[in-house]
From TrEMBL:
The lineage of its organism: Bacteria, Bacillati, Bacillota, Bacilli, Lactobacillales. Transmembrane segments: none annotated. This is HAD superfamily hydrolase. CDD domains: HAD_Pase. Signal peptide: none annotated. Pfam families: Hydrolase_3. SUPFAM superfamilies: HAD-like. InterPro entries: Cof, HAD-like_sf, HAD-SF_hydro_IIB, HAD_sf.
């Protein structure tokens, strides 16, 4: 009996315009109306995803930053797993030496030290989602989307590490050369047993505390509701979704998902640009006669 649905955002619930389609919104609300819990499980920070949910009129709890911070629908923190400051500083030094653009996601939101590079990275993401989108148009769309997001631009990431009032939850590094351009730093970071490295796209790696994983966070949230994992459904497309795809009794890979996600999931749905997430939800509700 399906009781809880967890969905990734980028490449899953969001379409090529980086919004939740009307079809997907209707499917979410249909499930909620039938008493099925819905939770977003994303690599994004709260301030990045909340405007998208508000725009769609969806209210739900959030597993954010790959599980580093779990928040209920009222904004109350349920759990957190930050990266220790000393370790965060080591990663920052490593990435700076490698000459990579990266962002630091904190308890105060997403922090960037280069606005132009952030827009360029977002534009490349839009272009990768829809190859028909010219890069110049993608840059314009990215710039407009940035206005909806509360991004903190800082001069020096070390200020974040040294501020006792700020917790660092995730560090994301990007490379225009894809995973090959990130392999060297991946190997260096993987030497730290207290960290986990995932990816939400072909051109990035995401670094979290080992306890900040979508699967662990989803398991904890389901336990809070006394819901067995056999009654949990998860949906995702990229490798930071793998832990929750493996742990849920019902799991869906998007048609645009990585090979690893498709192999781990027990169901396949259509692309994120074809309302795949909403179709997966409706498929399960139909099977239940709802």
């Amino acid at each position: 009996m399906l009781q809880l649905i967890a969905s990734d955002m980028d490449g899953t619930m969001l379409n090529d315009h980086m919004v939740i389609s009307d079809y997907n919104v209707a499917a979410i609300k249909h499930a909620q109306e039938k008493g099925i819990h819905f939770i977003v499980s994303t690599g994004r920070a709260f301030k990045e995803v909340k405007p998208l949910l508000d725009q769609a009129g969806v209210s739900c709890p959030l597993i954010t930053m790959n599980g580093a911070l779990v928040i209920d629908e009222n904004g109350k923190t349920l759990s957190s797993a930050p990266i220790p400051d000393q370790l965060a500083q080591k990663i920052i030094i490593l990435l700076k030496k490698a000459g990579l653009y990266f962002e630091v996601i904190t308890s105060h939101g997403v922090c960037s030290d280069d606005k132009a590079a952030r827009i360029e990275n977002f534009a490349e993401l839009l272009s990768s989602i829809d190859a028909t989108t010219p890069f110049k148009l993608a840059v314009s769309l990215a710039s407009a989307r940035m206005e909806l997001m509360d991004i903190n631009y800082v001069d020096d990431y070390y200020e974040l590490v040294n501020d006792p009032h700020i917790q660092i939850f995730k560090i994301v590094a990007f490379s225009p050369h894809g995973q090959a351009g990130l392999e060297k730093v991946r190997q260096e970071i993987s030497k730290y047993d207290s960290l986990v490295i995932t990816s939400s796209g072909s051109g990035n790696i995401e670094v979290n505390h080992i306890k900040a994983q979508k699967g662990l966070a989803l398991q904890s949230y389901a336990d809070r509701l006394n819901i067995p994992m056999d009654n949990v459904m998860s949906m995702g497309d990229n490798n930071n979704d793998l832990s929750m795809i493996k742990i849920a009794g019902i799991s869906y890979a998007m048609e645009n998902a990585t090979k690893e996600i498709k192999m781990a999931a027990n169901h396949l749905t259509s692309k994120n640009t074809d309302n795949g997430a909403g179709k997966a939800i409706e498929e399960q509700l139909t099977q239940l006669g709802l």
